[in-house]
Design goal:
Blueprint: E1 9-12, E2 15-18, E3 30-31, H1 36-52, E4 75-76, H2 84-118, E5 145-154, E6 167-170, E7 179-180, E8 186-193, E9 198-203, E10 212-216, E11 228-235, H3 238-247, E12 259-266, E13 276-281, E14 286-290, E15 308-314, E16 319-326, E17 331-333, E18 345-349, E19 355-362
Parallel strand pairs: 5-11, 10-19, 12-19
Antiparallel strand pairs: 1-2, 3-4, 5-8, 6-7, 6-9, 9-10, 12-15, 13-16, 14-15, 16-18, 17-19
Length: about 375
């Protein structure tokens, strides 16, 4: 019987081994080469072999499943003449080739699908959706600030001249930069937080001015279109403060060891309110004393033209509240002063050695 040159095909997933070089009557070693081109040639050789081989149709069972991984190289020695069983084995190998090609096509299609449709949990080139939920970053809302601008003037001097070189700071909060008034008495504190209790101090010890604190809590509604809140502040010297206390009947005023409270009352247009009364809780110090335009005590227990009431020698280190009343007007704390939750009363801390100015609104 004519000896046949058989090509032995090893298929393991995507690797195909082609056995090359058979000659009649001689044993030769064949080396395998795993390439896509060799696989094609092997398929053609196998089809040629099938045409010359005779024997029964291949059995229903195919050869063993390919191993999980191909070996590094495979060598095959030619045996004796091919028998019908060997022909059958060759045909089975052809079926295995077809199956392997089908597997490759399926794998390629699956890969294409993943590239076009988006594999699970991957971001593809055409924007395939990922199975993982998108992580949304919610930006924090920016903290809005305002600039506190204003001018400092002499409250009792004729014409209310500006005062230069007054140091303006947020009391006991060094994270905010201080300012110094210029020749026009003007100042600006930058980037203060709105809706926050702040105590703004005004100090000039060289001129022996009475140190003063303005409690502020500025809502957004009080900030202008340029981000500014404007306020004028009147100071007085320590000497004048003692004279005012004497005119009110307070002989022993302690300017350094006690706090002193000034409550002023205006309408929304900053006109002073006459005929109003104030009450401080808890009670403490000497007052209220209502000031006239000449700096004397009003014989009536109500505000006169300046719209001011004063408490002297208030124990420091406590928090106080002041309420405002008028016979024909509705009164509450000024919108930009520190106030209670209902805004019906102004609130403040009494700092030792300072004159504390709080404000009320009646209209």
């Amino acid at each position: 019987m004519k000896k046949l040159c058989l090509g032995f095909l090893l298929v393991s997933f995507l690797s195909i081994v082609w056995v090359q070089g058979c000659s009649q009557g001689n044993n030769q070693e064949a080396t395998t080469e795993v390439t896509a081109e060799a696989a094609t040639e092997t398929t053609n050789n196998t089809e040629a072999t099938k045409e010359t081989a005779t024997g029964p149709e291949p059995g229903p069972e195919a050869g063993p499943e390919p191993g999980p991984e191909p070996g590094p190289e495979a060598t095959l020695e030619d045996g004796p003449e091919a028998t019908p069983e060997e022909a059958t084995s060759s045909e089975v190998s052809d079926e295995t080739v077809a199956e392997a090609e089908a597997v490759e096509e399926t794998t390629d299609e699956a890969s294409d699908e993943m590239l076009t449709d988006g594999g699970a949990g991957e971001t593809t080139t055409d924007g395939g959706a990922s199975d993982s939920p998108a992580q949304e970053t919610v930006p924090e809302a920016p903290v809005k600030t305002f600039n506190f601008t204003g001018a400092v003037f002499d409250f009792f001097a004729s014409g209310n001249p500006p005062i230069k070189d007054v140091k303006v700071c947020v009391h006991q909060q060094s994270q905010y930069a201080c300012a110094t008034t210029d020749a026009s008495g003007k100042f600006t504190l930058y980037k203060l937080p709105h809706d926050t209790d702040l105590n703004i101090s005004f100090v000039n010890t060289q001129k022996q001015l009475m140190p003063l604190i303005v409690p502020l809590n500025v809502p957004v509604s009080e900030i202008d279109g340029n981000g500014n809140y404007n306020h004028r502040v009147g100071l007085l010297s320590e000497q004048v403060a003692k004279l005012v206390a004497l005119s009110m009947g307070v002989a022993n005023v302690d300017l350094t060891g006690k706090a002193h409270i000034v409550a002023d009352i205006h309408d929304k247009q900053l006109n002073t309110i006459q005929g109003a009364t104030v009450t401080m809780t808890p009670t403490g110090g000497d007052g209220p004393h209502y000031l006239t335009a000449t700096g004397t005590k009003n014989p009536k227990q109500e505000t006169s033209q300046p719209g001011i009431a004063v408490y002297f020698n208030v124990p420091p280190g406590k928090t106080y509240s002041v309420t405002y009343k008028h016979t024909s007007k509705s009164c509450k704390a000024w919108p930009s002063t520190v106030r209670n939750t209902t805004s019906s009363a102004a609130q403040f801390e009494a700092f030792k050695g300072f004159l504390i100015v709080t404000s009320g609104l009646c209209q």
